[in-house]
Amino acid sequence: MYVGKVQYVDHHREEIPVGNSFYAVMHKRSSFEHERECRAVFSRYFADLPRVDGMVPDDVLRTFPLGINVPVDLAELIEQAVVSPLAPAWFADTCCRCVNPL
Asked: Does the global pTM surpass 0.90?
């Protein structure tokens, strides 16, 4: 499990670093910098999986779950949900129900 602060980059001027598989999920466009996001990422180690040309074949990867369920108390985890003022009204209604169920 890896927990860290998301790094925000201007993709027109910067590239996401290489050399660590977590870099891709721990970087976002600088337009999201206001979110000040923290992420928890879980990854299984794939060292023992068969490879073709250095890559794990898709049929092997499909045998793994896309994610894991982690029970959380959303009221404790989420301080507030901020919706873009450009979003349609129905979007805010739907989003806020997830954070504060009716």
From this structure: no
If you search the block for the tokens 């602060």, which residue do you land on?
5
Q: In the chain, where are the structural domains located?
A: 1-70, 71-102
Residues 66 and 76: their CA atoms lie apart, in Å, by: 25
Under the phi-then-psi rule, with left for phi > 0, alpha for psi from -120 to 50, and beta for the rest, what region is 24?
alpha
Closest CA to 46 of 59, 61, 58, 26: 61
Higher-confidence residue of 86 and 17: namely: 86
| CA–CA dist 48, 17 (Å, integer) | 25
DSSP 15: -
What single-letter amino acid sits at 31?
A: S
